[in-house]
Amino acid sequence: MTHLRLSGGAALAVPALLFAPLHTAHITPTVVLVKQADAIRSTLPNAAHFFLRTVSIGRADYGRIKQMASYTPHDDQVKFYYGTDSDGALTGTVLFPQVNTQHGPFEIGLTLRPDGSVAQVVVTKATVETKPWVEAAIKTGFLDEFQGMHAGDDVTKALEGLDKDHLGAMPTFYADVTAKAVQRGLVLYQVLFAPHLPGQGS
Amino acid sequence: MGLYSLRRCDPSVKLATVLFLLVVGYAYIFAFLMVKQWAGLSPSNVAATYVPKPTVEESMLSAQSESKTQPLDLSSMKAEKHTVNTQLLIQDSHIHILMFAIVAALETLIILGLEWRPAWRNTVITAAFAAGALDFSGQWLMKAGLGGFSYLTIGAGWLMTAVYVVVLLGTLKAVLARGADAGRIA
Most buried pick, A61, A99, B50, B77, via CB within 10 A? Predict the structure, then answer.
C-alpha cells in the first residue's frame, strides 16, 4: 500500500518535471491592444499595396529631431508603413512611436494622410498595469482630437476637452503620454519620411 | 531549538504542507507558460528579452539618413519581440526577489522536518534561496549587456524547479510513510 501511495506521489511530481524550466524570467507583460498589422490594415482602407520603409537616422536628421521634439530617439532606425492605391499614389503612412514610462512601454499607431496631417491615432501597446488607465482615457474619445494636426502644432490641444478631475490622475497621465507619442511621431514623419514621399523620387 | 519531524506531525500539518506544495506547483505551471509566451525558452530568446539595444551615439551615425523600402505582406508581419527595460526589471525584481525569498523560507520550514542528513539539508536550503537570487542576477547581467548570462537565468530556473521537486518528493515520502514512529495519518 505504501509503495502504491509513493508511486502516486511520484506521479504528482511528473507534471512539475515536465514544466521544469519555470523561472527563467519573470516579466511584467506588455499588452497588445491592437496588433500593428491590424492597425495598418484598418487605418489605410484604400491601400491596394503596402510597403515598409526603414530609415536609418543620419546625424543631420538626428539633430533636427532633437531640436523639434525635445527628445533623442532610442533606436537609430525608424519604420514607416505606407500604402499605395492601384495607381501607385500614397494613401497614408503609419508609424508606431513608443514612449517608455515608469510603468513600462506605451505605443501608439499614428496614421498620417499624404499631406502629413493626422488621420487616426490608436493605442497599440500598454502593460497589464496601465491597460485600465489607458482604456479609461481612450473612452473619453480624446484620440479623435488629434485628427488634422500637423508637425509643429500644439498637440496638447487635443487634451483640452478632458475632464481631468473626473478622469483621474493616471488616465490623465496616459493621455499626456499619448500626446507626447503623437508629437514625436509627427516630427519623425516630418524629418525622415515627408522629404522623400513615395512617388516623388527619393 | 531542535528540528521537528514532519513524519510525526499531526495530519493537519501534513495536509497543509502537501497542499501548499501542490498549489505552488500549480502556480509554477503558469509561470512556465508566462515565460514561454513573453521571454521564450532558449538562451537566445531570453537574451533578446533583456540585453538592451546599443544606445544611439550621435557621433557614430552616418552624416545623412538612409532608407530602404520593401513590399510588405501584412499577413506575415511578425509581432515585435517583447523586451524588458531597466524600469520594468526594477519593478519585477522588487516583487519577485521578495516572493522567491518567502517561498524559499516556506520550503525551508518543510525541509527542516524531512529528517535529511545535515549536508543534504543545507545544500537544498541554500539552493532554494540561491535560485531566485541567481535568476535575477542573470537578468541584471544581461541588462548590463552580457547576453551569455541567459544561461545563468535559465539554470537558476532549473535549480528552482529541482528544489521544488526534491522537496515535494521528500514531503510525500514523509507524509505517506508507514511505521511505528510515523504520525497518525500513516
Answer: B50
Q: Does A59 contact B62 at a Cβ distance shorter than 8 Å?
A: yes
CA-CA distance, B85 to A102, in Å (whole number)? 10
Tell whether the model's pLDDT for residue A17 goes beyond 50.
no
**DSSP string of A66-116?**
HHHHSS--SSSEEEEEEEE-TTS-EEEEEE--EEEETTEEEEEEEEE-TTS
Cβ pair B64, A51 in contact under 8 A: no
Q: Residue A184 to residues A161, A179, B124: CA-CA distances in angstroms?
A: 21, 9, 52
User: Are B153 and A24 inside 8 Å of each other by CB?
Assistant: yes
pLDDT band at residue B145, thresholds of 50, 70 and 90?
very high
A70-115 pLDDT per residue, tens: 888 888 899 999 999 999 999 999 999 999 887 878 999 999 999 9
Q: How far is CA B75 from the centre of its chain?
A: 35
Q: How far apart are CA B86 and CA B97, in angstroms?
A: 16
- Global pTM value: 0.65
Q: Positive or negative CA dihedral for A21, A25, A28, A30? A: negative
| Chain B partners within 8 Å of A9 (Cβ) | 168-169, 172-173, 176
Tell me if ipTM is over 0.85: no
